[in-house]
Amino acid sequence: MTADVQWSLSWIRDVAARVSERKSEFTTLDREIGDADHGENLNRGFTAVVERIDGLEQPPGTIGDVLKLVATTLMSTVGGASGPLYGTAFLRASKAAAVPELDGQAASALISAALEGVSTRGKAVVGEKTMIDAWAPAAAAAAQSAENGEDAAQVFAAAAQAAAQGAEETIELKATKGRASYLGERSVGHKDPGATTTALILESAARTVQ
């Protein structure tokens, strides 16, 4: 499958299915350092996204149209910090992907725009034990892949691998941002749930475009 509008719909459906399968895992991660609602919140949001996709009267014209629908739905249905953060990520990404198909450069731009959205909304930087610790290495890897002339599938694969590694590395970080920061040193040893679900989202992007 190429990285076209049909792919973007498959990507989001895959994210929804995998969030549903792993919501208990994400809630457990969040229970250690947060509000214990990350899994349920994301599952509610992506379930609503799929319902909206199913209810569309006309097929989306661009990938950006799909991502904007995701953004507005998450913002209106997901509580806590993850709704605004993911909503802003997908909204910025939608503006970078206002095309019917992505090449490698456009795929990289989509990921970079999502990172910019999360960074702007959350005012977080790398090393604070947040989803930025997955988005930032993903964007860097995607940019390098695109610079090497690789296609969208390869760009998403590189981003997914980097995001997964970034999420794993949050285990050893002390949280200095958000609710987890209240735990101080006790936050060390726990994987950040937002970074974990970021890795899932990018892994879904990579595997559905293959």
TrEMBL record:
<keyword id="KW-0808">Transferase</keyword>
<dbReference type="GO" id="GO:0047324">
    <property type="term" value="F:phosphoenolpyruvate-glycerone phosphotransferase activity"/>
</dbReference>
<dbReference type="Pfam" id="PF02734">
    <property type="entry name" value="Dak2"/>
</dbReference>
<dbReference type="InterPro" id="IPR012737">
    <property type="entry name" value="DhaK_L_YcgS"/>
</dbReference>
<keyword id="KW-0418">Kinase</keyword>
<dbReference type="InterPro" id="IPR036117">
    <property type="entry name" value="DhaL_dom_sf"/>
</dbReference>
<dbReference type="InterPro" id="IPR004007">
    <property type="entry name" value="DhaL_dom"/>
</dbReference>
<feature type="domain" description="DhaL">
    <location>
        <begin position="6"/>
        <end position="207"/>
    </location>
</feature>
<dbReference type="InterPro" id="IPR050861">
    <property type="entry name" value="Dihydroxyacetone_Kinase"/>
</dbReference>
<protein>
    <submittedName>
        <fullName>Dihydroxyacetone kinase subunit DhaL</fullName>
        <ecNumber>2.7.1.121</ecNumber>
    </submittedName>
</protein>
